[in-house]
Amino acid sequence: MSTMTEPRRTARTGRASRTAEQAAPRVSRTAELWLLGIGMAVSFVALGGFALVMNRIDLTTFEQVVMPALVGTEADSGVGVAEAHELARTLAAWFSVTLIAVLLLSAIGWFMARRRPWRRTAGWWILAAGLACLLGSQLILFPVAFIFFVAAGVFALRPVTDGSPS
Question: Is the residue at 3 inside a domain?
Fold first, then answer.
C-alpha cells in the first residue's frame, strides 16, 4: 500500500486543534493596569524624589531645611549634622534600591497582565511589588503600597468570563 492510496487526515490533532476549540477568553485588564501605572508613578516620584534630593543636597542646606523636618534641631535630637546627613543619604540609597525592585516587579506584572490577562499570575507580581514598596520604604509609603495591593486584589477577585453575560 502506498501513501497515495491512504485517506488523508483532514483534522490535525494536537496543540493547534486544542487552541482553536478552547481559545483563551478575551479579558480587558484596563482598571488593573491603570492602578498599577498610578502606583508605579507615585512610587517613582516619592522614592526617586527623596533619593535624588538627598544625594544632591549639600551639608549647609541639609542643616537649614531638611534636618529640622526629619529629626528636629541639633540641640533637641542629640544627633550631629554630619551624622544626620549621613543617615539621610543611607536612607536615600535604601529608597533607590527599593524603587528599582518595585519598578522591576511592576514591569513583570505589567508584562504578564498584557500577555496573558486571563491568568492571575500578574496579581502575584503586583502583590510582590506592593510588599517591596511597603517594606522597602520602612512602612512610610503605605498609601502607595495600598494602591499596589488594590490592583493585586482586583486581579485575584475579578471574575474572568468568556464574553457571555452569564
Answer: no
